[in-house]
Design goal:
Blueprint lengths: L2 E7 L11 H11 L3 E6 L7 H14 L4 E3 L1 E2 L6 H14 L4 E4 L15 H9 L3 E5 L5 H4 L1 H10 L5 E4 L10 H10 L3 E5 L4 H11 L4 E3 L8 H11 L5 H16 L5
Parallel strand pairs: 1-2, 2-3, 4-5, 5-6, 6-7, 7-8, 8-9
Length: about 260
């Protein structure tokens, strides 16, 4: 079972990097990926409501292939964010939601803007994903997710990108933070291969999962990189990193 734990889809092809659900599933077939964790690719106007709905519709169209997550933007206001959470969890039944302080321009542990939203999201008992990257280090530094992990120790957080998404990456800081907070699970997408190896060796192979960041990175290429990295490791380890770890974190069956 191969699961790509970081993919973006859109309701329509509004630029060269916008994939519809049909496009993504075709790419999955080509890369021999069984399932993908999907969230939206933010539109230029930040109107995320229709895009969250597109993720819901996509998961209904491909229930055995797509694992849907919502997207919350605190910049759109607390009421908007809380309504989005209710829709994503109560109406759509998503497995979690994602926060991205780089694309949406906010500090992810801001006490006034973000913390009330995270607190409400954590109360649902679902998994919360955070873009953690060097593309906007002030907003999305790993230490900021560490503060959230400490504030909500019973919530599982996905640390997306391992501090990558730009150069120089913040992978050493990301690994240090993940080492200190065992409720963080690392998705090694948009990051260089040595950082992934370091995360595996430091955190253990059960706390890291494969992700491509499709369409920003090519799924079949990133899968090939992971397969090369895992040469020489046992089959249990390979199965975990390539899919079973993220399924376990989300409480989903392996097949």
């Amino acid at each position: 079972m191969i699961v790509d734990a970081d993919c973006h889809i859109s309701s329509q092809r509004f630029d060269g990097l916008a994939l519809t659900a049909d496009d993504l599933v075709a790419a999955m077939d080509g890369a021999q990926v069984d399932q993908a964790l999907v969230w939206l690719k933010p539109p230029y106007d930040k109107d995320i409501g229709p895009e969250n709905r597109a993720v819901y519709d996509a998961a209904r169209a491909y229930p055995d292939r797509l694992i849907p997550f919502g997207w919350v933007n605190p910049r759109l206001g607390e009421r908007h964010a809380l309504d989005t959470l209710a829709r994503c969890f109560d109406e759509y039944g998503f497995h979690g939601v994602k926060f991205n302080g780089a694309q949406d321009d906010y500090v992810i542990d801001d006490e006034a803007l973000v913390m009330p939203i995270v607190e409400r999201a954590a109360a649902y008992g679902k998994v919360l994903a955070f873009h953690i990257g060097a593309d906007f280090p002030e907003n999305t530094h790993p230490m900021r997710l560490g503060r959230l992990a400490a504030r909500f120790p019973d919530t599982t957080f996905l640390l997306i990108h391992l501090g990558g998404a730009a150069f120089p990456a913040l992978d050493r800081a990301a690994i240090e933070v993940a080492s200190a907070h065992h409720n963080l699970h690392v998705i090694g997408s948009a990051i260089h291969e040595r950082a992934i190896i370091a995360a595996l060796d430091t955190l253990g192979t059960d706390r890291v999962s494969f992700g491509s960041d499709m369409p920003f990175f090519l799924m079949h290429v990133r899968r090939a990189m992971y397969e090369a990295l895992l040469e020489g490791r046992d089959e249990h380890t390979r199965r975990g990193i390539m899919g079973e770890n993220i399924l376990r974190v989300l409480g989903l069956p392996k097949a």
